[in-house]
Amino acid sequence: RKLGNRPGEPWNRAVITLPAYKEQNLTHLQAANKLATYFSAISQTVEPLDESKFPPALQLALQRGRTEPKPILEEHRVYRKLMRVSKPNSSVPGDIPKALISRYPYQYTVPVTRIFNKVIQSGKWPRQWVQEHAIVLSKLEKSRFPASEEDLRTISKTAWLSKCLENILGDYLLPVIEPFLDPGQCGGLRKSSITHYLVKLLNFVHTTLDKRKPHSAVFCSEDLSKAYNRGSHNLVVEDLHSMHTPGWILSLVCSYLSGRSLLLSHNGSTSSERPLPGGFGAGTWLGGMLFIVK
To answer: Exposure winner among 65, 83, 113, 274, fewest CB in 10 A?
Structure first.
């Protein structure tokens, strides 16, 4: 329910209205478009992906990656992913209904395997899979009374099949880049969570304070404003190349990052499409991993 109603269900959420929008007497559709423009503008503070600006070695790796032999997925591997990847109650237009994929995963395995292999062999991520379907939530305790856009945030969902393919791609990508990741990184990785970080932090504080010679522990936190939505696509691809990521994965990542767009739903209305030249894909496995890399 956090991610919104399923297609065809009536809108029954509490209405979030900004005072400025109310004064301007905006319709729900006009408000949705204005909010979409606001959030997409954050992403537009960075340059879009431009392969012509890549270093020569990276350009050569991409050329080789698009022509070299690529792995072919087998049906049993895709079947296991369809069974294991979590199936949310919410969906986006064009998604396979949760009830069908849960009840008939074997029947879907053959066509889904063909789609995934087509994506890998072509190096082109489907355009409908790079659309982020977002809704607006308030950051405030009294969630229905935000004062401005700064008091709002978005959460997004993407096509479920895209998440499945990202999960498969992660099986190839993670073993390559894991040796280069910060050993102190706890979020977004398998068998690790923010709880592990809190345990490490508390252990450091208490072991420091328990020393015979008096010590003090100083905690300094830093929050980068809207960092996830301002990630540079050009820089993260360069980082992946420096981590020795295979060319065929680099070409897929470039396609995944190119032409990303936002559709924002607000109070039952959906905005027109807005470009997202920055950021890494909210609500996705690959987006989270690219954010960790960058």
So the answer is: 83
Degrees, nearest 5: CA angle 71-170-68: 30
Nearest in space to 243 (alpha carbons), one of 172, 178, 170: 178
Phi/psi at 47 (nearest 5 deg)? Answer: -75, 145
**pTM of the model as a whole:** 0.83
- Collapsing DSSP to helix, strand or coil, 121 comes out as helix
Are 205 and 217 within 8 A, CB to CB? yes
Spatial CB neighbours of 85, under 8 Å, sequence gap ≥ 6: 160, 163, 164, 167
Q: Give the C-alpha distances (Å, rounded to integers) separating 285 from 30, 213, 290.
A: 32, 46, 9
How many CA atoms are closer than 13 Å to the CA of 257, on its beta-carbon side?
Answer: 31
Task: Work out the number of other CB atoms within 10 angstroms of the CB of residue 132.
Answer: 26
Apex CA 257: angle with CA 234 and CA 131, to 5°?
150
- The closest of 45, 97, 39, 10 to 271, measured between CA atoms, is 39
Q: The dihedral of CA 86, 89, 92, 96: what is its sign?
A: positive
- Give the mean pLDDT per block of 10 residues along the chain (294 residues): 50 66 87 91 88 92 91 92 76 80 86 94 91 85 74 85 90 90 78 84 89 84 77 90 93 92 88 88 82 83
In the chain, what is the greatest distance between 2 CA atoms, to the nearest angstrom? 67
